[in-house]
Each structure stands twice: as structure tokens, then as C-alpha cells.
Amino acid sequence: MTTDREQLMSALERLGSRAAESARAALREGAGFWFFIGSGVPANHHLRIFRVRERILSNRAPASERHQWVSDALPAFSAAGDAALQLGEIRHGDGRHFFLYMTSDLGRCVACL
Asked: What is the 3-state secondary structure (H, E, C) of 6-22?
């Protein structure tokens, strides 16, 4: 299971979220990326975690861009059900970083935060 920069950029483009577009911009600027192979955790587990996180973030004012990214990801985690997701990360030298939740074959990005 490998993916190259162009495959990852295509997967993020298909996802189409604001977070995915920001991650694509970081990749275009040369950000590094990697996947934690074997890290497969069911999507519904991530859904439970991020529902709690979304509630916590909702109590803070003003709402941050990351809060919106979490809210945007909830339906995708729900739709993925119990599918095991592989965790990946994009890290730019300027401090921007993104966590990727990919299908087990790394062909589709379910969520980007």
C-alpha cells in the first residue's frame, strides 16, 4: 500500500472539503506526508471521538476553522461505518499539519482534519 503525492492530492480533491483544499495547498508547497500503516481503526470509533470533540468545540467562541473541519467530517465518518481507516499526516515546515483518515487501500480520503 503506497501512494504518491499526486494520488494523495487527487484523493483530497475528491473529498472536496475546506480542510482537504488547505492540505492540498500544503502538498503543492512541498509539505511532507506519511501513513501509519496498520493503524486501521473503525470509522465509527473516530465518529464517537469527534462527536465529543465537536460538542466541546461548540462551547468555545468564536468558532475556529478547525471546529468547522470537525463538523464537516462527522457525516463522512458516519457513512464509512465500521470500515477500518488508515491514519496519515501531512506536515508543512511552517507548522501547518493535517490528519488524514484514508480507506485501507489508501485510495480514498474519508476525512481530513
From this structure: HHHHHHHHHHCCHHHHH
